[in-house]
Amino acid sequence: MTLLTIERLEARHGLLTAVRGVSFAVDKGETVALVGANGAGKTTLLRAIAGQHPIAGGRVVFKGADVTPRTAHARARMGIALVPEGRRLFASLTVEENLLLARSAGRAGPWTLEAVMEAFPNLKARRRSLAGALSGGEQQATAIGRALMTNPEIILLDEVSLGLSPLVVGRVYEQLGTLKSSGVAIVLVEQDLKRAMTTASRAICMLEGAIAVEGATADLTHEQVTQAYFGLRRAAGHGAPA
Amino acid sequence: MIFLNQIIQGVLLGGYYALIACGLSFMFSVMRIINLAHGSLAILAAYALFELADRFDVSPFLGLVVVVPAMALVGAGLQRAVLERSARGGLLVPVLSTFGLSIVIDNLLFQQFGADTRSLAPYIGDLSYDSWSLTDDIAIGKLAALTMATAIVLLGGIQLFLNRTQFGRMIRATAEDADTVGLVGVNARRVNALAAAIAMATVAISGAFLAMRATFDPYAGALQLIFAFEASVIGGAGSLWGTLFGGIVLGVAQSLGASVSPQGFFIAGHVVFLVALFLRIYFGDFGPRLRRLARRPA
Amino acid sequence: MSASPVVVVERWTRESRVALAVAALAAVLLALGPLWLSANLVDRLTTLFVYVILAVMWNALVGYCGLVSIGQQAFFGLGAYFAVRLADSGLSVYPSLFVAAVIVGVLSLPLSAIMLRLRGGEFAIGMWVVSELAHLLVNLDTLINGETGTSLIALNAYEIGLRRALTYWCAFVAMVGLLAVVFVLLRGPTGAAIQAIRDNEQAAESIGVRVTRAKRTIFVLAAFGAGLAGALWVATAVTFQPKTYFSPQWTAYMIFMALVGGLGTFEGAILGAVVFFAIEAWFGAFGVWYLVGLGAAALVFALALPRGVWGWVEDKTALRLLPVGYRVKFLGAVGLAPNDPAS
């Protein structure tokens, strides 16, 4: 059952087109990996889906409704959650306050404060600490927890492993496993190709704002994705060095 | 003994300053805008209460039941019509637009009510001059005490509201990052309108107490703005309790200055403000440091 | 084989050369004012010159430094006060005007050490407090006698026609002088520094712009200018009542002139002064409604058109009358030589 459909989406930064004519769909409960080099347009795409970035063309259809004209907070209330690049926690609020704030989305569901604490035990001790005083892993857990507190139907994760040590990244991915089993659809931006391919059932590789290659992770080879990532296949015949 | 009385009067005056500064400080910490029309809006509220008292025999305290919500609505409207757009325009626009607004309000009030000074004192009976005599030299005015009590309750109430309620969390989060706050379902525009409404509600209350303890005229807003600003700066911008401290320091300075000469009242206040400013600039903001010390056992 | 384009950097445009010629002609005509204009017109032009000074000075502070001050009336009032004081103590009246302005400029120097550390609304109200304090201190002077004030009695030494002419010439020289100073400043390294600061202070600092020094220069100049304006005003009005000179209404006028004319544009300040002068002439009689109109205009322009009328003109037409910027011209696209008339 299709949850989210992106149709020929376009987004700009001033005069630069960051996302050009991107189309794809995400099913209920599916995990999709979004990969691509820096500047490929992944963050802009996620922000546009969440409502934080203005859409210059195309549509975002969620649960059958066209949400393109809707604000970010309206989309959060419908069930789209974004864990933004850089976490963007409210540093002057405590962990607990950051989580409780997300109740403003007004959605009922399995994710309560206790449930989030259970899923991220490393936060239990830091409940009353200011979000600005947390370690990287704790911040990431809080950011994901905050998105979960809105009880979303789809969660967009932008670079969860950024700035985290491998050990901590491992733990975050373990927690993502719990998330997958809860039936929430996930769109995951990840620099680490191997992790992306093993965690997701489908992968989309972006290059310079457009989709370079797309398919089930079982069907795509590592090499296919790498080539698309760097634009190597496209290079043949254009005179630019391969 | 007389000296002690001066100080006590100054402290009580500080209660009024905390009240008028509260809204200014609150709006600044939430929206990063200093509303130069702040004083004029307090006078607007004072005139509204005066009209209710003069024409309909409504006691100022009862009048607040109408005026406070009305001013809250004005605040929300102001936020949408002026402040939101001003904040987007950069650092200069809010100052220019709110100053322009203050001129419009002052002169419209003059147009409507003329130059005569007014006061709410006649409408609160004995309260305007009753006092408790502690000794021969020391007296505590009942109105002044009520003002101080109101200030403490209001400041405490707002602090609790900010720290313990969901709306309070929404306001604090929006103040910090209005962009991200939408991701968790918070409507930033509505939250800012709410914050402006709260600020204006406190302005209405301070306008009431100003009018009860003193006289006012259409152009009295400027001075109230200056006092509110001075109290906020002396107390350390961004802290509600600091506003009370700043108000008291200002009140005491003015009170002691007044014992020297009538202009001494104003001169002492301005000088203390400049000294506090100087200290803050060259030695840093004491407020946050004190607060960090208080938070230490986390 | 393509020739690389030649880049030429120029400062003057044809329009600016024409404008300068027109301005020079106007200046000559105005300089001869008292000789061929009616007494009434001479008086009114004197007022206009003072408005231009106020507008250009406030605009320099705001538009080029990004500092909104609600307290320039402090310097305006102090300029008038010192002029009265100096004249009273024996110095000749007209030199007193200029010396008074110098004193104000000097006083503003230590003040800048504190005030320039403030930003936005804090700076604005902080300056307002300074003006209130200045007002109170001036009132303490027994010569001024509180709000009763006093007069520039020394002016009586001059016959009225001569007084009018001398005041006019002082105002004219002051205006032209200050305009020239601002113009030269803006064209020079300080000007570039100031505009860099206005656009992005941190970035400016990171490339070595002496931010504090540039701001201080403008601050002191603006104080000097406002002080001179105040001294000139007392020379025309003769009476000095502190309440009138230290009123924030002067800032309201300055805001109106700068906003309507165009914040941060040299031409805009002059235009704003002219517009204000005209509006005051027509609507001043409406009393309070006139003030409401000024406030409302400031509000609307701040929200909708902060770059004012001149800014709007500049945006629509790329017209630059006064050459304070640089224009980069690419001559010689492929094949064209630099001096080719086609480029």
Ordered list of secondary-structure elements with their pairings:
The complex is a heterotrimer of chains A (242), B (298) and C (343).
Chain A: E1 2-13, E2 16-27, E3 31-36, H1 42-50, E4 57-62, E5 65-66, H2 72-78, E6 80-83, H3 95-101, H4 113-119, H5 136-148, E7 154-158, H6 166-181, E8 185-189, H7 193-199, E9 202-207, E10 210-216, H8 222-230, H9 232-235
Parallel strand pairs in A: 3-8, 3-9, 6-7, 7-8
Antiparallel strand pairs in A: 1-2, 1-4, 4-5, 9-10
Helix pairs in contact in A: 3-5
Chain B: H1 2-31, H2 38-56, H3 60-88, H4 92-113, E1 118-119, E2 131-133, E3 139-141, H5 142-164, H6 166-176, H7 188-213, E4 215-216, H8 221-235, H9 240-258, H10 262-283, H11 286-295
Antiparallel strand pairs in B: 1-4, 2-3
Chain C: E1 6-10, H1 14-31, H2 33-36, H3 39-65, H4 73-88, H5 93-115, H6 120-140, E2 150-151, H7 160-187, H8 189-199, H9 201-206, H10 211-237, E3 239-240, H11 242-245, H12 249-261, H13 266-283, H14 288-304, H15 308-317, E4 327-331
Antiparallel strand pairs in C: 1-4, 2-3
Helix pairs in contact in C: 3-7, 3-10, 3-12, 3-13, 4-5, 4-6, 4-10, 5-10, 7-8, 7-10, 12-13, 12-14, 12-15, 13-15
Strand content of chain A: 25-35%
Output the structural class of chain A. alpha/beta
Strand ordering within the main sheet of chain A: 6-7-8-3-9-10
Main sheet summary of chain A: 6 strands, mixed
Examine the coordinates and then state which fold CATH places here, giving the name of the CATH topology of chain A.
Rossmann fold
Q: How many individual β-strands of chain B?
A: 4
Mean pLDDT of chain A equals: 88
- In total, the number of domains of chain B comes to 1
Q: Percent of residues of chain A in helical segments?
A: 25-40%
User: How many domains, in number, for the residues of chain A?
Assistant: 1
Number of helices of chain A: 9
Q: What sort of overall outline of chain A do the alpha carbons produce when their principal axes are compared?
A: globular
Question: If you consult CATH, what is the topology of chain B?
Answer: ABC transporter involved in vitamin B12 uptake, BtuC
Based on the coordinates given, report the CATH architecture of chain A.
Answer: 3-Layer(aba) Sandwich
Highest CATH level, the class of chain B: Mainly Alpha
